[in-house]
Each structure stands twice: as C-alpha cells, then as structure tokens.
Amino acid sequence: MIVAMRVDHRLVHGQVAFSWVTAINANCILAANDDAAHNEIQMTALQLAAPQGVKVVVKTIAESIQQINSGVTNKYRLLIVVKNVQDAWHLISECKQIKELNVAGTNKTDNSEQVTSAVYLTAKDKQELKMLSASGVRVFSQMVPSDKSIDLIKKL
Description:
Blueprint: E1 2-8, H1 14-24, E2 28-32, H2 34-37, H3 40-48, E3 55-59, H4 61-70, E4 78-82, H5 85-94, E5 100-105, E6 113-114, E7 120-121, H6 123-134, E8 138-141, E9 150-151
Parallel strand pairs: 1-4, 1-5, 2-3, 2-4, 5-8
Antiparallel strand pairs: 6-7, 8-9
Helix pairs in contact: 4-5, 5-6
C-alpha cells in the first residue's frame, strides 16, 4: 500500500527516514532513481540512512513502475521518494494508484524559479505538475509532517 510519495533531491535523509516514516507509519522506503540504482555506494548510503526495521529498496524508475504495478509492494506501507519532478511524472503516469505527490525539495538550476523555500521548478516541471493535478493527483508541498501542507498548484 502506497502511503506517500515525495520529491526530494536528497532522496533518503533525516526528514524522510525519521519524521515522515514515523508520521505515516511506513515500513518500507522505495527510492526510485536511475542514478542511485546504478551506484553501489549511493545505494548503500541510502539503505543505511533508514531507521532500524524500515526496509529501503533502491530501484530504477522502470523497475519501480514494474514492481508497483505487479502488486509486489502491496505488502508494505510504502513511502516512495524520487529525486525530481520528471521522475515523479513518469512514475505517476504509469502507476495510476498514486493519488498524491509531496514536492518537498528540488535543486536550484539556472532554468528554475523558486516556488517555496525549498522547491525550485522549471517551466517543464510546472507543466508536468499541472497535468498531474488535472488528472486528479493532489500536488502539494510539505517539508516535515508538522508543517502545514501548501497547495503547490495555486503557487504556479
């Protein structure tokens, strides 16, 4: 069961591994990222960042889509973390059971605009988020569980 999906350029770190896992009672984190899935050092670091008793799986976007749609992840209370809006777009477009997206932290680039204190979006990011919203996905931003959720579409 997917309990949350988050865009965070850091993937698994303190806010994700402790605050969010505890708040949503997740027992598995799926870090869906092509680069991390092909980098043994990064994969190990991500797995070590999780609290004891929480499984961390690092898969490519394609592998993540396949596993979610096959139902193999249904036995977990799953928190999905992706590195950027494009990965979120691809995953949600192929996994219709994902109905919410927390855009919590993205990298600043030359082509991006600051939307919240930690979210920088390109024109393509904004377009993809608007399309996700139009398809029924709730798109919001919330850094930690104690923060108020912000309707990100209204800020675009």
